[in-house]
Amino acid sequence: MMRGILVSSLLVASFSVMANTANKSSIPTSSNQPVLGHEEKAMLYPGGIEVPARIDTGATTNSLYGINTREIQKNGTRYLRFTFIDHHGDTHEMTQPLLDEITVVQASGEQTRYVVEMGLCVGNYFEKTRFTVADRSRMTFPVLVGRNYLDNTLLVSSSEKNTVTPNCDDQLALQD
Q1: Parent domain of 89
Q2: What is the pTM of this model?
Q3: How do residues 27-63 score in pLDDT, each as one tens digit?
Q4: Residue 24 falls inside a structural domain
Q5: Cα–Cα distance between 108 and 61 in angstroms, integer?
Q6: Are 84 and 101 in contact (CB under 8 A)?
Q7: How many angstroms separate the CA atoms of 81 and 96, rounded?
Q8: What CATH number does residue 41 fall under?
Q9: Is 54 part of any domain?
Q10: Residue 11 domain-assigned (yes or no)
């Protein structure tokens, strides 16, 4: 009986060591692809506004801090005019085509948000991507980067932060 307990204990200990070793060696790395941290500097277009961003693999969609939202019509197309507030508290008036309105479900309840498309640069990766516009005044970061930007392109390590700086070609970012 004692021998059975000893063997069981040794097996549990060896599996525990193997699991810890496997976890440490399975951290994704790539020589041709940067690994982002959970906090990064990003560049938002139009405007080339550098902002700190929370990189959140749990969030489906990007979100940015926008207030004073109002729908307007231009040449028969719906636009959203809003005030973006950066991490310094500076305001940037923006007008972007209004793509959609979605309902976001959170622990605090449901909220309807506008969706616009903007350019985003993290490291040397640029993409025009969708953002929900929300009052993020209670959040630390004015921009949250979600899976719609990260999917199939960028790796994220929750143990890292500020691993890259925005380095996108401004001409590429300014193209329609």
Answers
A1: 33-174
A2: 0.74
A3: 345 556 678 878 889 999 998 999 999 988 888 889 9
A4: no
A5: 18
A6: no
A7: 7
A8: 2.40.70.10
A9: yes
A10: no
